[in-house]
Amino acid sequence: MNPRSRGLQPNFQARFPSGSPGHDGYTSDPFPVIVARGSGPRKWDIDGNEYVDYGMGSAALLLGHAHPEVVSALSAVLADGSHFGAPTEPMLEWGERVCTLMPCADKVRFVGSGAEATMLAMRVARGYTGKEKIIRWESHYHGWHDYVMPGNLPPFDVPASIGIPQGTIDSIIVLPTDLTALENVLANDDNIAGVITEASGASYGTVPLPDGFLEGVRRLTRETRRGDDHGRGYHRFPVGARWRSGAPGCRTRPLYDGQNSYWGPTRRSRCRP
Ligand SMILES: Cc1ncc(COP(=O)(O)O)c(C=O)c1O
């Protein structure tokens, strides 16, 4: 059924770590199917087999594969160039649209991937609070940078990769999705900068959060107010995930994918009201 995909497996293994040219999710046992093209909700492999694509680019392809309007819009702009190292008018429109779609976002920073967005969100939280530790939930996925490898995969008491500095591991507190566990940590550790959450529940919501969990996290992080060196308390506790609609007090600063950049919060941005 998949002779060409099977036949290419040794070549992928020889060229790429784990045999995967990208995400680890591209690997599968005994071999992944090699995709040739997609259209709408379907894709076809290089052996001509047709699939209904339930993955949809890790849920990024809201309009399906190769939607005609997306193809047409991209084709139209490609001829003008695509990387100028400078702002463009469409970037402004894109940023404005993001803020319109997400009323809790008043400013946007474009970065190159979700992993960079979560890394930057953690840096912003640390910079803003002057605290160092981030609380995260077991098996929630936030990319693959050093700060999110602890707790990514079971067993949760060791990082999902070797090569992570101990100082980084020590700055991450991995908890089960249990409000009592959160309450205990907040009560006993005054060095918490933020909580990061896969707001849908782990693995794109396939492991749903307990009812009222997000609201409970928000309540606890608001209630745990300790004055700090900068005269701020946890009423401005940053949370690196957008609350599901209806959750109270959304004050997050979501970060979106786009052109990669170096950026760090300065003292000025840190003191922003
Ligand atoms: C909730 C969440 N955060 C972060 C990431 C990492 O995004 P990226 O693969 O673009 O680095 C993902 C990717 O699936 C994700 O689902």
TrEMBL record:
Annotated region (Disordered), positions in chain: 1-28
- Keywords tagged on the record: Pyridoxal phosphate
What cofactors are annotated for this protein?
pyridoxal 5'-phosphate
Q: Which domain of life is it from?
A: Eukaryota
Keyword Magnesium in annotation: no
Q: Name one GO molecular function term.
A: pyridoxal phosphate binding
Query: Which is one Pfam family of this protein?
Result: Aminotran_3
Kindly provide the name given to this protein in its UniProt entry.
Glutamate-1-semialdehyde 2,1-aminomutase
Provide the species name: Geodia barretti
